[in-house]
C-alpha cells in the first residue's frame, strides 16, 4: 500500500499564504484607511463652503451692481463695474469713518491686551481663593450677553443716576455732574463704547495668558532670580518672550474682533440719537445697506472692510501656516 509523504519546505524558506485574494483585500483596506481622513473632512468643508462661500461670492457680485430695494422685489440688477468702489474711495465721510474705526480698534485692542496680561500676571501671585474668585468673575463677564452688558454700562454711565458720574463728581471733578456721556460728542461716546468692548474682551485674554504663564519653565525664572534680576525685568525679558506666540495671536484676534464691532456701537447709538458722528465701519455698512436700502454700495463697503481686515491680519495667517514660527 502506497503511503503519502508530506512535502516539507527547504530550510530557511518562508511559507506563502496560498489563500486567494488576501493581498488584494489588504491593499483595499489600506486604501480605505488612507482616504478616511479626507472623507471625514468632506462634510465640514461642504458646510463651511455652503455657509460662507455662497454669501461671499454673492456679496462680491453685488458690489459690482446697482442693487437696491427694487432689485429685492425682482427687478434685474444693473452692472456698474467699479462705480461703487469709486464712490466709496472718493467719499470723505468714508475716510473719516475708517480713521475713526482704526483709532478705536488700536485703543480698544491695546488696552484689552494690557489689562488682560496684567490680570493674568496678578492671578499668578495671589492666593488660591482670590485667584478662583477672579476666574469666576472673568467667566461671568465673558458669558454675559452683549446686549445685557451694554444695558448695564448704559445705566452706569447715565447722566442722572449713573455711578460713573457719581464717582467722578465725588472725586472732585464737578464737570461730570450730570454729564451725558452718549450725547456729549464723539469722544465721550467712543470712550463708553471702548469700555464695553474691553470689559467683554478682557476675560479671554486673561485666561489664555494665564494658561500660557502656567506652562513657563520655572528653572529659567529661578536662574534669573539667582542672578539678581528684578521681577519686572524677569517678566519683560524672560516670561513674556516665552509666551510671545500666545500674546501675538490674542492681539491679532482682538484687532479682528474690534475692527468689525457692531452690536455695542449700534445699541449705544439708539440712546445717543447720533449716528453720523459715532459711526464705525460696521454700523456704517448696516446703515448703508439695511437701513438705506443700497445693498450694492453696502456690499462694496463690506469688501473694502474685508480687504482691510486681511491687510491687518496677514501675520495671523502666516502664524497659522507656519505653526507658530514668528520670525
TrEMBL record:
* InterPro entries hit by this protein: MetI-like, MetI-like_sf, UgpAE/MalFG_permease
Q: Where in the cell is it found?
A: Cell membrane
Sequence intervals crossing the membrane: 34-54, 102-122, 134-153, 189-213, 234-257, 295-317
A Pfam family this chain is assigned to: BPD_transp_1
Q: Does the keyword Membrane apply?
A: yes
Query: PANTHER family given for it?
Result: BLL4140 PROTEIN (PTHR43227), DIACETYLCHITOBIOSE UPTAKE SYSTEM PERMEASE PROTEIN DASB (PTHR43227:SF8)
Which family is this sequence assigned to? Belongs to the binding-protein-dependent transport system permease family.
Question: What is this protein's name?
Answer: Sugar ABC transporter permease
Name the species this protein comes from: Nesterenkonia aethiopica
